[in-house]
């Protein structure tokens, strides 16, 4: 849509990517002179071997995820595996004695840490992962854990009720997130003019919406349902637009893969073991999610059903969603540059 492709749009994604790349490069250069924090260097002869058991990666593994909670675990098979120690036990077989989990408020912040070397790998939404790769980030995608990340558009009370009502209105978004891609694609598809986007993290956006300082906001899953229960109008959701649904990606730095070439295989085997364990304990798993986000197990079962967790690294439908998102970002000149998805995905 012509009205959408303007300076406002460019100042939204493009500026974020430029700042992200510049900051990350400075951090990366600074990090180059630092040590591995006491981690053991990989044995070149061992890691070159095709036998994973001989690999000797650094003893400390740094993992990032989106969302903060008192337990410091993500959800999904990854979070369950860390919570139960299943993944740690598997990694110990390869000399990894400590896994440090680091929570981030959004994908761009996590991508910056991965690029700078503060993280070895992490799980995040597909849009920030794609945007980081488009800036030249040396990462590889190793797992697409979920392919049903739904963005919701929530209006303020007494405010816009329909998509047409968004004309000339202000929407709070998280720049660079899968929800940003959702609202950007939605505004273009529906040809809604003069929509103003303001970057706010979820808690800030919710507060601004309650005060009437913004007309609408994007939100996700359980947090959006809470707002709807509180009387905020649901204007739209990505389930009505299958091409705008997001996915979850786990990416690893190419630098770490040099130290542990078989990491992709080891990680996915450990993750699958964790998934099988939680599938056998559904009630305990939903209780775990409840501890993470403070919502009831019943509501978690509704918005995060176990059946949506993928038991394979990548599916054809998931890769198709990735390709569609990448194409949109590139076509709208929101991504820095195009790249071959097949060269990014490590199967």
What layout of secondary structure does this protein have?
Layout (H helix, E strand, L loop, with lengths): L6 H26 L11 H5 L11 E7 L9 H9 L1 H7 L5 E7 L2 H10 L4 E5 H9 L4 E11 L1 E5 L14 E4 L4 H13 L5 E4 L2 H10 L4 E5 H9 L4 E4 L8 E8 H6 L3 H17 L2 H12 L3 H7 L12 H16 L9 H4 L3
Parallel strand pairs: 1-2, 1-3, 6-7, 6-8
Antiparallel strand pairs: 3-10, 4-10, 5-8, 5-9
Outline the structure in words.
With 347 residues, this protein is α/β, with parallel strands linked by helices. It folds into 2 domains: 13-148 and 247-344, 3-Layer(aba) Sandwich (D-Maltodextrin-Binding Protein, domain 2), CATH 3.40.190; 151-244, D-Maltodextrin-Binding Protein, domain 2 (3-Layer(aba) Sandwich). It is 46% helix and 17% strand. It is built from 15 helices and 10 strands. A 5-stranded mixed beta sheet has the order 2-1-3-10-4. A 5-stranded mixed beta sheet has the order 7-6-8-5-9, sandwiched between helices. Helix 7 (178-190) links the parallel strand 6 (170-173) and strand 7 (196-199). Mean pLDDT is 87; it is low at 1-53. Keywords: Membrane, Transmembrane, Transmembrane helix. It comes from Paenibacillus ferrarius. This is Nitrate ABC transporter substrate-binding protein. The chain crosses the membrane at residues 12-31.
Short description:
This protein has 347 residues and is α/β, with parallel strands linked by helices. Helices cover 46% and strands 17% of the residues. The chain has two domains: 13-148 and 247-344, Periplasmic binding protein-like II (D-Maltodextrin-Binding Protein, domain 2, 3-Layer(aba) Sandwich); 151-244, D-Maltodextrin-Binding Protein, domain 2.
